[in-house]
Structure formats: structure tokens, C-alpha cells
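For the sake of transparency, this paper describes our internal protein records without simplification. The record that follows is passed on verbatim for readers who wish to inspect the format:
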Amino acid sequence: TLFPYTTLFRSIVLIIVLSKLFKVNKMAKSISLKNNFPFVIILFSIIGLYSFKTIDKNFYWKSKLSLFEHDIKYLNNSAKANDLLGNEYLIQAERMKQKKDVFRAQKLAQKSKIYFQQAVAIYPNYNEAKSNLGYLYLNYFGKPDSAYFYLNQVHSEKKKKILSLFSQANEMLSKNDTDK
């Protein structure tokens, strides 16, 4: 969201207006508390409010998973945000799988799949999400045909990219040979 940036901008404008109103000397190396008491009080109030807002936001930052779960509400049309949340669920699923908690691992893998599918729906060429879908279908859902579908798309895209780079390099090499 733009809230932090617009609020910061408004606060900077407010500080500039207040400094003009209270005739704060810009050339002074420090602000005199005696002469500018109302300005200093307002300035520290603004700083205090920003500190509170930062601490308030930190509750969502206790882990990547909690941050991404909170932010997806605002970024549900972002392929990257969906991929990040899908990755976090996949990491959690892998941890549960290592702990032999198959039920929770399967549940987390299912959540992961939803977000990877959403990322691919938003951006069909999102190879990382397709790779992760292939991994999930192969290792969690026992569907090698679905895994092959996604992994083959990634392989084909990479193959096209490599062939394109190869032909560009060939073209550059042939130009260099004719220039000599």
C-alpha cells in the first residue's frame, strides 16, 4: 500500500510548513528548545507516531509466512506475491514432512499449490511457479502426469531461451569473423 509513503510525504511537508510558521533558522546547527518549543513538541510527536506505526507493522513481520499472509490480502493480483506465499507454504510443508507429520505437510502443500496456480494464472510464463507446481504434483500429490505438464513447459521455455541466446552468439561470432 502507499500509506507509509504518502504519510511520510505529508509529514515532511508538515515539518517544512511548521518550520516556516515557527521561523526556524535553517542555517543554525541546532534548534533552540527555548525559542522553538512548540515546533520541537510537534516534531517529536510526529517522530513518536512514526515509531508507533513501525512497531505496529512489526507484528506482521514476525515471520515471512505471517507477513506474506497479511500482504496477500492487498496483493492478490500479484504473481510475485502469490509465488512468495506459495514458497513459504512449501517450505513449511517440507519441514512437516521431515518431522513425519504427513497430514500437516499435505495440508500446507495444498495451500502452496493454490498460490502457485494463482501466480501462473496471473503470469503464464512464471517458470518458478510452474517448477514448484511440478515438484508438488510429483512429491506430494502423486500425479506424475501433472508434474510432467508443468515441468515440460519450463523445460521448453528454457530450451527456447538457450537456443535464442545460442543463435545470437553465433550471429555475433560470424560478424566478428567478417570484420577481421
